[in-house]
Design goal:
With 306 residues, this protein is an all-alpha fold. The chain is built from 13 helices and no strands.
Length: 306
């Protein structure tokens, strides 16, 4: 079963692709939102609107879970690891670097995930095939960066390190999420985001001036709502759905796909042009995912075995 770190089904790959589109879009939506909102307010808006939406969905659907202080404490830890800290770091980084570069740096998550899972779990051990696939995928990420961006990696070093640090938090959150695997996806997403909002709200309200909401452009509101409802609320329902069947290591492969979707959406929404390096990088990323999955290689192995 893929939940034990094995090969994913076609349905799980499809859900992972959809999640990559939603999270790739988050970099574009954040880039638009940051034109008028300070990073802490953008993060709080994302969390609060998403939490409200999913709590409403739960109420309308009649979904309930037996909440306890211990369970809510787990959601608080998960919310800090998976939302509050990495969202804040990445959104802050986007005040200095482009969203496409942030998305590409975000693709280091599977490396952390594979290493942490290999040493900290008994059922998510890394295999040479998985390491090879991730290496190919990361090669695609490097190609997508291109010579120009690689030359600029020394510039704005602190924001870039902030994204790398965020990916480490994502990896830890992927492992910690195992403790919430049995929670229904909608409830898990709703309470994680509610706990995140509980942490983020006082931090922002006590330290940041209130934004002039009446002056925000319609495009800013649209970006904030898309960030909250599509790239957060719906995305985390998918997150917990994939987690239950595919496991955390497979789930974090989504970050290899995010640069692809972020670059494509950046071209469609922000008019950024797709380069030859980015097309080649996308092909390598897809090849790496195919190696990890293994089904494409099985016929080749069977032929060689003859």
């Amino acid at each position: 079963m893929a939940g034990q770190g094995g090969r994913m089904t076609l349905r799980e790959w499809s859900l992972l692709g959809l999640l990559a589109v939603l999270w790739g879009g988050s970099f574009v939506f954040a880039e638009i939102g940051l034109r008028e909102l300070a990073p802490p307010w953008l993060v709080l808006s994302r969390l609060a609107f998403a939490a409200l939406a999913l709590q409403l969905v739960m109420r309308l659907a009649g979904t309930t879970i037996a909440m306890s202080p211990a369970l809510f404490g787990r959601f608080l830890v998960m919310g800090c690891l998976n939302n509050v800290v990495p969202f804040s770091l990445i959104v802050w980084s986007q005040t200095a670097i482009e969203g496409s570069l942030a998305a590409i740096l975000n693709a280091t998550t599977p490396f952390w995930m594979v290493l942490l899972a290999h040493f900290l779990t008994a059922d998510e051990r890394a295999t040479p095939q998985k390491f090879t696939g991730i290496a190919i995928g990361w090669g695609g990420v490097v190609v997508m960066l291109g010579p120009g961006l690689l030359a600029g990696l020394g510039q704005d070093l602190l924001p870039q390190l902030a994204v790398i640090l965020a990916t480490l938090f994502y990896a830890f959150s992927g492992l910690y999420a195992r403790r919430l695997r049995d929670v229904p996806p909608v409830a898990g997403a709703a309470w994680q985001l509610t706990a995140s909002t509980t942490v983020m709200a006082p931090l922002v309200l006590l330290t940041q001036p209130f934004p002039a909401l009446q002056t925000l452009a319609p495009l800013t509101w649209a970006a904030v709502l898309a960030l909250a409802l599509a790239s957060t609320a719906f995305a985390y329902v998918l997150f917990f759905r994939i987690l239950r069947t595919a496991g955390p290591t497979n789930l974090m492969l989504v970050t290899l796909l995010i640069p692809v979707t972020a670059v494509i959406l950046g071209g469609l929404v922000l008019g950024e042009r797709l380069s030859g390096e980015q097309v080649l990088g996308m092909a390598l990323i897809l090849a790496g995912l195919a190696v990890i999955d293994g089904r494409v290689l099985r016929p080749i192995g069977a032929l060689l075995g003859r």
